[in-house]
């Protein structure tokens, strides 16, 4: 495995571990995706989440209608305006998700060794004897001895809120199961997962397409989290669908790997997707527990080498109800950062958890501490070796910018970009300092009106480790010798100074295009 990414200077004074960390304008290089819901949808709550370090807001369409999510999104816009902090929007599709429908929302208590029937007849009331589901083909997909898990908002891992069923027999369209542990299911909807069983449902359902083509188009969403991605073709179909929806042709697709099928076709999926989400809730059930870490490390490494963001989920489940994470969870977050993860995705913790702001803050602090001991030198050498020679023009410029920044101990790298690709390539080499991605808007026309591009590209860097975007004023050239015309570089430097990232006598590495040439230069700031 690709271990040894930890850098701890020897000998380390153990007492130094207790020294308080210095406050930083950027809470952590690793980004945080927060799921907005009942406990985190007011303007005040979202503002606090943004200040705590959330840079991407996830809208989960497994529950709630478009009107509900639109209200939340309007609150997000108000919070962004109030805090002056950028935030991207991610739409999470339902996909091939099996659900148990509990219309009356009464708690259902299931006892160990009892019999319960899963039925596609949704007109029946949910009880401790019958659980109606949203899929008519389960009886054809499973066999005696197969394992099925049912829980609220995926699986907490707690044996009191999720239940493990074993298929006893198939009776027509019904699946008769034996309950393997006592549990109480509460709420209107529970997710059902049949372990290592192929479910014949489309990855992008009719409802998903409707939501994307209405709510998604209306709000020009930055990312789609493609739930239950199982094949590269799933991503291609989604991209073709988005290409017909105007501005959404720029929306990035993050393939959500949730089962063994997705794992088996991982390499092909990675080639097609813009990023990967490792959905460890379902993966932790589909895979033996001892194999989960192995897949995580291998998948994150592949994403890193491809220069595509890797997002890890289900890290601090216990903070849904508690103010502090467990020791194992705190270590898990740090290990995800050391593995090379770009972002941590919080689900139930922020959606319905009691402490959404504290959770984001805690995860951010752990990420920041782990980032300090990330072995960048070793990572850089491995990445350069993996890329090989001859490098592409952009790859050579990006790696040179990072190497120069580390050699001169630069406080920040400033990268001018219009598509965002150059900045993402610099981030691929995991510099130890922040990368300020200055997005230069481009003028485009559809023969009816003129418009500027750049907002999508700026927001989409909010999920990439170490990238911090800034949208340039299109009236300012990338660099100007004219004293009366303020250059974008000066604006970027002023932004860095105001945020405390750049100080007097600091060195800054700048990566930009001058004519047809790409230039890396080092600037030493005066008083």
Automatic annotation (TrEMBL):
Q: Which cofactor does it need?
A: K(+)
Annotated pathway, please?
A: Carbohydrate degradation; glycolysis; pyruvate from D-glyceraldehyde 3-phosphate: step 5/5
Q: Which UniProt keywords apply?
A: ATP-binding, Glycolysis, Kinase, Magnesium, Metal-binding, Nucleotide-binding, Pyruvate, Transferase
Q: What is its EC number?
A: 2.7.1.40
- Which InterPro entries has this protein been placed in? Pyr_Knase, Pyrv/PenolPyrv_kinase-like_dom, Pyrv_kinase-like_dom_sf, Pyrv_Knase-like_insert_dom_sf, Pyrv_Knase_brl, Pyrv_Knase_C, Pyrv_Knase_C_sf, Pyrv_Knase_insert_dom_sf
Q: Which residues form the Pyruvate kinase barrel domain?
A: 30-360
Extract the GO molecular function terms from the UniProt entry.
ATP binding; kinase activity; magnesium ion binding; potassium ion binding; pyruvate kinase activity
- Enumerate the catalysed reactions: pyruvate + ATP = phosphoenolpyruvate + ADP + H(+)
Q: Which Gene3D superfamilies match?
A: Phosphoenolpyruvate-binding domains, PK beta-barrel domain-like, Pyruvate kinase, C-terminal domain
Report the NCBIfam families cross-referenced here: pyruv_kin
Tell me which family the UniProt entry assigns to this protein.
Answer: Belongs to the pyruvate kinase family.
Question: What is the protein name stated in its UniProt record?
Answer: Pyruvate kinase
What are the top taxonomic ranks of the organism? Eukaryota, Viridiplantae, Streptophyta, Embryophyta, Tracheophyta
């Amino acid at each position: 495995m690709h271990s040894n990414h930890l850098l701890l200077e020897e000998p380390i004074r153990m007492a130094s571990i207790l020294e308080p960390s210095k406050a930083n304008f950027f809470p952590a290089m690793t980004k945080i995706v927060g799921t907005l819901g009942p406990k985190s949808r007011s303007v005040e709550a979202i503002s606090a989440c943004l200040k705590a370090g959330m840079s991407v807001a996830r809208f989960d369409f497994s529950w709630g209608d478009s009107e509900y999510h639109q209200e939340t999104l309007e609150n997000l816009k108000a919070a962004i305006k109030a805090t002056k902090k950028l935030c991207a929007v991610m739409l999470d599709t339902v996909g091939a998700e099996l659900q148990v429908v509990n219309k009356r929302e009464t708690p259902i208590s299931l006892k160990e060794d009892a019999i319960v029937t899963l039925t596609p007849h949704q007109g029946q009331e949910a009880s401790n004897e019958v659980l109606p589901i949203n899929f008519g083909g389960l009886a054809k997909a499973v066999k005696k001895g197969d394992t099925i898990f049912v829980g609220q908002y995926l699986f907490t891992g707690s044996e009191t809120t999720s239940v493990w069923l074993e298929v006893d027999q198939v009776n027509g369209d019904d699946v008769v199961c034996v309950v393997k542990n006592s549990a109480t299911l509460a709420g209107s909807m529970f997710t059902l997962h049949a372990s290592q069983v192929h479910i014949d449902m489309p990855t992008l359902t009719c409802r998903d397409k409707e939501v994307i083509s209405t709510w998604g188009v209306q709000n020009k969403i930055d990312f789609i989290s493609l739930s239950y991605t199982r094949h590269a073709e799933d991503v291609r179909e989604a991209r073709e669908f988005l290409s017909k929806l105007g501005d959404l042709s720029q929306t990035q697709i993050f393939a959500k790997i949730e089962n063994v099928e997705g794992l088996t076709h991982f390499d092909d999926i990675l080639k097609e997707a813009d990023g990967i989400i490792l959905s460890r809730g379902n993966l932790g059930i589909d895979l033996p527990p001892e194999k989960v870490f192995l897949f995580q490390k291998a998948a994150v490494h592949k994403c890193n080498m491809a220069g595509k963001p890797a997002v890890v989920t289900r890290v601090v489940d216990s903070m849904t109800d508690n103010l502090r994470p467990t020791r194992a969870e705190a270590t898990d977050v740090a290990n995800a950062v050391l593995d090379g993860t770009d972002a941590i995705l919080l689900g139930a913790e922020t959606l319905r958890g009691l402490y959404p702001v504290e959770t984001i803050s805690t995860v951010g602090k752990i990420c920041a501490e782990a980032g300090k001991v990330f072995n960048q030198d070793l990572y850089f050498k491995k990445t350069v070796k993996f890329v090989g020679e001859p490098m592409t023009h952009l790859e050579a410029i990006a790696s040179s910018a990072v190497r120069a920044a580390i050699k001169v101990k630069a406080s920040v790298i400033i990268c001018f970009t219009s598509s965002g690709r150059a900045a993402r390539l610099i981030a691929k080499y995991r510099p130890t300092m922040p990368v300020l991605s200055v997005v230069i808007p481009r003028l485009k026309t559809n023969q009816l009106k003129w418009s500027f591009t750049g907002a999508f590209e700026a927001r989409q860097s909010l999920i990439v480790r170490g990238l911090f975007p800034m949208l340039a004023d299109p009236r300012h050239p990338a660099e100007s010798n004219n004293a009366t015309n303020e250059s974008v570089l000066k604006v970027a430097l002023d932004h860095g100074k105001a945020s405390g990232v750049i100080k007097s006598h600091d060195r800054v590495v700048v990566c930009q295009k001058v004519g047809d040439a790409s230039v890396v230069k080092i600037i030493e700031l005066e008083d």
